[in-house]
Design goal:
heterodimer, A: 259 residues, 8 helices, 0% strand, B: 190 residues, mainly alpha, 9 helices
């Protein structure tokens, strides 16, 4: 069996495994958006695999020469996937900063504006770039523009959480890191393959392999139910003491500045 | 072409960042082992409560001693002593700022309302203040404690901004007692 066929089979098999895992442990109720995305992946990649197997029977040169219809199906599914990846980002964000937490109330508006700005940047980058060598290049440009922004969103969420000392459980930590690493690799490899055609043979393997790797890490992360520890909230606090100390320190600093 | 090279480099850099975070392990909660100590420091911030800062950096005594040739050596000793004191004080002041900043993060973590803009402003002010204090330390070490009174005046505006930003957040919080903060902090550090 060809390596590409093995990878092609491994994708849907692992996606099926993650769906079964989410169903069996009833985690789909907790990680609903991830479940929706995994379900989409299974459908999309099964269609790609089915098309691959169908053409391998009717085209004698397949898989040395791929027919245009195969690529059309492949890239259209990939383009839908680019958009649906945002549900994974939303899942990570909502699990990290739960809706009723003070952190969510404080940061969601600012981070939302930042996310919108990134989205606008992704659209602009995609529309500005017009040096397309063919249909593949259009999809690659879409993939890398949004992939880059998605990686930034995940990194921003992780960095913000670390800044405020929000602790991650195994589930979200694994999902976020694997997803972020995968979209980053995808961004880099998609640019490299447009940069030089000599990278194409590697890209054929790197792209699906990195994806299979991500799904593998997701399965590992979800194998044990370990959600993020809850953020401890304080009640009403007396902070005027802090305010006094802060102002005292600042005025002391000011004294140094203006002796 | 530049676009593609940029995406390649940025993609690889992002990948490196995720690997770095993965290798670092889970982030520790803010209230780590130093948390209890930090509470104590906040209650009694030594550098901030030092009342004679103005006097410490005032060169009147030094000039007075210098005016008498017989007291030049004494003037030099005074200058050296003042320099050591000023350096120690600035160092403690930097520590106080960092402690308060850590505590601010702790409070936001525990639900005190704030916004990204305010957080970024505070962070910017803190970084600039720490950088300026570091610069002052270097200049005091190199040129003595009385050398740069004018050059540092502009830094005061940045510190003012930081102070206002912090006061704005804290003004929104209702009060029930300092002891409760300390209890919460110690409890979450456990």
């Amino acid at each position: 069996m060809l390596l590409s066929e093995a990878i092609g089979l491994a994708g849907p098999a692992l996606e099926l495994a993650i769906i079964l895992l989410l169903l069996r442990k009833k985690l789909w109720r907790v990680y609903t958006f991830l479940f929706v995305y995994a379900f989409w992946l299974l459908i999309g990649n099964s269609v790609i695999l089915g098309t691959f197997l169908y053409f391998s029977k009717i085209y004698p040169d397949f898989p040395n020469v791929y027919p245009a219809l195969y690529w059309k199906i492949y890239w259209n599914i990939d383009s839908i996937d680019v958009v649906l990846r945002f549900v994974v980002i939303w899942e990570i964000f909502r699990q990290t900063f739960p809706k009723r937490s003070g952190l969510n109330k404080s940061l969601s508006k600012g981070l939302g504006i930042g996310a919108l700005a990134l989205l606008a940047a992704a659209c602009s980058i995609f529309l500005i770039y017009q040096d397309y060598a063919g249909p593949r290049s259009i999809h690659l440009a879409l993939d890398r523009s949004f992939g880059f922004v998605q990686a930034l969103m995940i990194l921003g969420t992780l960095v913000t959480a670390r800044y405020y000392g929000v602790r991650y459980g195994r589930n979200i930590r694994g999902i976020a890191l694997a997803f972020g690493a995968w979209v980053s690799v995808s961004t880099a490899t998609n640019a490299m393959v447009d940069l030089t055609n000599s990278f194409l043979p590697y890209w054929y393997y790197l792209r699906p392999l990195s994806f299979v790797g991500m799904i593998g890490v997701w399965i590992w992360a979800l194998w044990v139910y370990e959600p993020n520890p809850p953020i401890m909230e304080s009640g009403e606090l007396e902070l005027s003491q802090w305010n006094q100390e802060w102002n005292r320190t600042i005025s002391a600093t000011r004294t140094i500045m203006r002796p | 072409m530049i676009n593609l090279i940029l995406f390649t480099v940025l993609g690889l850099a992002l990948f490196g960042s995720f690997i770095f975070i993965a290798l670092q392990g889970s982030p520790k909660g803010l209230p780590d082992s130093s948390a209890v100590q930090a509470v104590t420091e906040i209650i009694n911030l030594e550098a901030s409560s030092f009342a004679n800062a103005r006097r410490l950096l005032d060169d009147t005594d030094y000039q007075l001693l210098c005016s008498n040739p017989d007291l030049r050596r004494l003037a030099e000793r005074l200058r050296n002593d003042r320099r050591e004191l000023a350096l120690a004080w600035i160092s403690q002041l930097q520590g106080d700022l960092l402690t308060l900043w850590r505590f601010r993060r702790f409070l936001i973590h525990r639900g005190v309302p704030s916004s990204v803009n305010e957080e970024l402003r505070t962070l910017k002010s803190l970084v600039l203040s720490i950088a300026l204090l570091s610069f002052l330390r270097v200049s005091i070490r190199a040129m003595g404690p009385f050398a740069l009174p004018r050059a540092t005046r502009q830094a005061g505006q940045l510190v003012d901004g930081m102070s206002k930003g912090a006061a704005l957040v804290l003004g929104r919080i209702p009060a029930t007692g300092w002891a409760e903060i300390e209890r919460s902090w110690v409890k979450s550090a456990a």
